[in-house]
């Protein structure tokens, strides 16, 4: 039932004692809120719901080889590997003592890695469901598999980035500044990684030599902590996003900033509380389109900005009611997906800036999501303790 239906139902209710109007009105208001929430849950566009988590589900990743499995990690200190087709549990990645904030499959889906906030990382062999390796680092900020090898990279709160061969555990560390390594990404060539830090600096590391090839700091760096990094398909361009609301485009070969996309011109015009608005905004997610020279930047204030890289200009602004948590581009089209704090997944056509479709089903904010290879399925995780599978394939695309 929609909110309107619920309102209609309420009109049919007889108030026995009309004299007691005020307390009654309050009672109805609280009922009303519940009604709205029920309304939110009532619209469920998902095909499958995975509900074994007992707290917020923080992260999700899909297996790249078969695109049939998902791994999710949550605030309940648990991670599960399950089938997307029916939500059937394959196995639990047990033994974590803190919120599982990172989880992912190796490039060939042979291994799955799970990492918790306290820094315990475990790797499991998917076919045997057995743990093959574990290691404890400092507080974990991010974790990523190498795109071509059984190599795991992770960044920690002490500023170090760690690299291990799996399952042998051969290890290398890359020492950053004495502040958290807040985000990181292995470049497509598999030889370099870009890491962003809380002090606003960014480093490009040579993974083999263990040396930093380029450092962006001061005016070239960000003024506030980095929140996200991305690279284009051939790794020639890197984009960094920060709490300072700037997204920087960097040439990965020279380490030089090509241009800066600023949010100032897009700040809300409201004269009151302008300072607060500015403070509460930041770049939350970004990514490059594979088929056109476009990049997308998602902001905490709900703005999705599509930038044209050839002219270095803003092409479209797609406004969301609430903050964008993450965005992902479809692999072979100019369609960008966003998930936001209002619990919806939206598909946008980056050429026109128009919304293609919207999917709902969560009763709380979406915290992470993943799209499968052929862009037919989206898997979301939420503060409502659930993960959901949505079919997004449309006949006209």
From TrEMBL:
Q: Please list where the region (Disordered) is annotated.
A: 1-45
Any Gene Ontology CC annotation: cytosol
Q: Repeat WD: residue ranges? A: 50-92, 93-134, 188-215, 317-358, 359-397
Quote the function comment for this protein: Plays a role in angiogenesis and cell migration. In smooth muscle cell migration, may act through the RhoA pathway.
Q: Where is the Anaphase-promoting complex subunit 4-like WD40 domain?
A: 288-366
Q: Which SMART domains match?
A: WD40
Q: Which CDD domains match?
A: WD40 (cd00200)
Output this protein's name: Angio-associated migratory cell protein
By its UniProt entry, which PROSITE patterns does this protein fall under? WD_REPEATS_1 (PS00678), WD_REPEATS_2 (PS50082), WD_REPEATS_REGION (PS50294)
**Subcellular location(s) of the protein:** Cytoplasm
| Gene name of this polypeptide | Aamp
Keywords in alphabetical order, please: Cytoplasm, Repeat, WD repeat
Q: InterPro entries under this entry?
A: Apc4-like_WD40_dom (IPR024977), WD40/YVTN_repeat-like_dom_sf (IPR015943), WD40_repeat_CS (IPR019775), WD40_repeat_dom_sf (IPR036322), WD40_rpt (IPR001680), WD_repeat_multifunction (IPR051179)
């Amino acid at each position: 039932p929609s909110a309107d239906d619920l309102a209609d139902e309420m009109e049919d209710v007889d108030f026995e004692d009309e004299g007691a109007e005020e307390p009654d009105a309050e009672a109805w208001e609280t009922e009303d809120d519940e009604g709205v929430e029920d309304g939110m849950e009532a619209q469920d566009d998902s095909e499958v719901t995975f509900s074994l988590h007992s707290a917020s589900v923080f992260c999700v990743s899909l297996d790249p080889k078969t695109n049939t499995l998902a791994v999710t990690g949550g605030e309940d200190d648990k991670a599960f590997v399950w089938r997307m087709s029916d939500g059937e549990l394959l196995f639990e990645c047990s033994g974590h003592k803190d919120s599982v904030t990172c989880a992912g499959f190796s490039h060939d889906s042979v291994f799955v890695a799970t990492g918790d906030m306290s820094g315990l990382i475990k790797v499991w062999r998917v076919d045997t469901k057995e743990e093959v390796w574990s290691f404890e680092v400092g507080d974990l900020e991010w974790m990523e598999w190498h795109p071509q090898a059984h190599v795991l990279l992770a960044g920690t709160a002490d500023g170090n980035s760690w690299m291990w061969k799996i399952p042998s555990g051969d290890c290398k560390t890359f020492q950053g500044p004495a502040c958290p390594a807040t985000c990181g990404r292995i470049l497509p060539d598999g030889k370099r990684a870009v890491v962003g830090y809380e002090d606003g600096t960014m480093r490009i590391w040579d993974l083999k030599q263990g040396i930093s090839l380029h450092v962006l700091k001061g005016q070239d760096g960000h003024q506030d902590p980095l929140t996200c990094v991305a690279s284009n398909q051939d790794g020639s361009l890197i984009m960094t996003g920060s709490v300072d609301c700037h997204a920087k485009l960097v040439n990965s070969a020279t380490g030089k900033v090509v241009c800066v996309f600023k949010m100032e011109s897009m700040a809300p015009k409201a004269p009151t509380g302008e300072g607060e608005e500015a403070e509460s905004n930041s770049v939350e997610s970004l990514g490059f389109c594979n088929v056109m020279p476009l990049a997308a930047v998602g902001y905490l204030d709900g703005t999705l900005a599509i930038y044209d890289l050839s002219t270095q200009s803003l092409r479209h602004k797609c406004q969301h009611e609430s903050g964008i948590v993450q965005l992902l581009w479809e692999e072979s089209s100019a369609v960008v997906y966003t998930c936001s704090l209002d619990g919806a997944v939206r598909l946008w056509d980056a050429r026109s800036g128009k919304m293609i479709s919207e999917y709902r089903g969560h009763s709380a904010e979406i915290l992470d999501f993943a799209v499968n290879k052929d862009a037919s399925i989206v898997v979301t995780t939420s503060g409502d303790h659930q993960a959901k599978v949505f079919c997004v394939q449309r006949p006209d695309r």
